[in-house]
Each structure stands twice: as structure tokens, then as C-alpha cells.
Amino acid sequence: MVTNQTRRSLLKAALLGAAVPVLPFGCSSVSPQTNREPALIGCSLQGKQKYSAVVADKWGMPIQTLAIPERGHGVAIRPNNSSGLNQAVVFARRPGNFFMVFDYKTGQQVHLSVKGKNRHYYGHGVFSLDGSLLYATEGVSSTSQGVIGVYDALNGYKKIDEFSGFGIGPHEVIIMPDGRLAIGVGGVHTDGRTPKNLNTMQPTLSYLSATGELLEQVELADKQLSIRHLAHDGDETVLCGQQYRGEPDEYPALLAMHTQGGRLEQLKAEPEQWARFNHYIASIAASDEWIIATSPRGNCYGIWSKQTKELVELSSLTDASGAVFMGDEFRLSSGAGDVISQAEPSEKTTIQTLTQWDNHWSSI
């Protein structure tokens, strides 16, 4: 992500002259004030060394704000099912020291879990389909050996298991519709945030069963493409976004897609278009037709056709951050406070939320 100083400069530039027309509440026939139910959760920056988890309505307008101890990253939302619980979990940015469980309707903290000895959190997690377990990406601090921590959500989020044996430096974990876990394994050993093994990286997209059995691993030909952020299309296709750790003047493809038993297929764009993403993909969201991905480092986002794998739109967005697919529209957040609603290429509206959105969004 960009530094706080860079972020402040970008915010100032955005306030002086936005490139996209800002509408008060988009072009929907429904005003945000008429529907204030929680729909989106993300992290935000509140000022120097002040961080929050923010619950917003479907337009990205804040409803609840909860202070968190450190800078946050990803958010996992517990399936409500029949429990009646309205719980979400915010994870600290890597190498993270905590995750916090909270009620997204009241804004009250439910549980705070602090990292164990010689462990750290990588910033992401996901619930099992029935909401009984929380899976979190973790690492052995001395080696970056990957761990999926398993927590019992029915009994105070007590840690009950660890899955390992799939590589080093896992970042995001998602759950597939059949209950399998997909893990973006970055392959990077770090001391804090400093990489130590860029010449020997072994990134993979790895799949585990719900009990931790390694089912499948696939790789990209370029081993300096660190696989980090994931999404799926609601069915069997996984999208993965990469951070390129190779030569600074090379611009390989940063997005790939995969279905079980197949190979990773890279999405298409020209080198100068990939250069706009500045070697980094943050959030990804997908529908059955479109794939959307953001780059805060590149201050942009792109839309690809899922069928052709071709880039069909590349747009500027200052500190582009979260991306989710809701109903029949994408929602995008930014560190400048803009929220974009986009149904398909060239059909978008923008509102200003005055919230400095940071990293990712999750939809309830």
C-alpha cells in the first residue's frame, strides 16, 4: 500500500480536482437515507496512528465505526444462518498482532484474539460455510512457514487446530461453495515487512479440504509473481492477483484465473496497461461476466471480460482499494473517500463518503 505521506498527497490532489464527476448519491432511484442496513465493512484511516473498522450501508455511507489497535486489512463476515449473530472479524495488517470480532449492527467488540508465540497474522480470514469455524492466514514468525489457524466460533473463538504444509507466506484465504479452502501463498519469507528470499520464492495457489488436507497446488511460470489476493465467481472459478517482485522495469500479467484440475490462465492486457497497476493487485471481485481488480499503488482499477480474458476498461481511482460484487453491481472504495458503483464497463456513478477507506471491503 502507499505510505501515509503519499496518501495525504493523493488526498490533497483529489480534493483539488477530481477526474470523475461526483454525484451526491449516485443515479439510483433509492436514496441512501432510505436504506441504512449494514451492507459493507472495511477498514479506514482516521488520522496519524488511528485506525478503525467501518460498517457502511450499500452505498458505502458509514453507519458504525469501531476503533482498532493497529492498522486493519481484511474483514471476514460470519454467515448468519440460524444463529441470529451479526458478527464480523477484522484482521490486523501483516505482520499482524490481533484479530477482533465485533457485532456489525451495534458496533460492539465481541472478542479480541492476540497472536500466539512465534506467530503473526497475514491480514485475512474466512468463516466455514456454516459459520462454526474461523480460518485465519498466519505464519511462523521466524520462518514465514504458512499456517491456517482454525478457531471455534461457537466457543469463544478458541484456537483448536492449525493446518500447514502448503508453503510460506500465505496471504488471503477464501472458501469455495463446496467448502474447500483456496489460499494465495505468496512464497515470500519476511522479517517484519522486509522480504528475505526474492530469488527463491515459491508462490502457489493452494487448495485445502475443510480438515486441512492439501488437495491441489498450481503455480505460475514466473516465480517472482507472489500470489496474494483472491476471489471466486460464486461457482468454481478462482481469481488470483499478484504482486510482482522481479525487475522494476518489467510488467507481467498480474491477474490469473483457475478452475479445479486445470492450469492458471493469465488475464490479458498490454505491458503498458499492466504498468499502470505498479506491480500490485489489491482487491478482486467477479461476476459471471466480469472481473474487476484494484491497485492502490497504481491509483487505478481494471475490468476484464471473464469470457475473453481481455481488459475492457482501465480507469483512474485515487488509492483504489476495496472491491465487492453486490447484487448486479460492483462497489469500489478508495482512500480519497470515493465509492464507485459499476454495473458493467462504462456504466458507473461515484459518491463521496468522506471516509478514508483502506485496503479491502467485504459485503454482508
Automatic annotation (TrEMBL):
Signal sequence coordinates: 1-24
Endoplasmic reticulum as UniProt keyword: no
Residue ranges that the Swiss-Prot or TrEMBL entry lists as coiled coil: none
InterPro entries documented for this protein: TAT_signal (IPR006311), UCP028101 (IPR008311), WD40/YVTN_repeat-like_dom_sf (IPR015943)
Stored Pfam families: DUF1513
Annotated keywords: Signal
Protein name: DUF1513 domain-containing protein
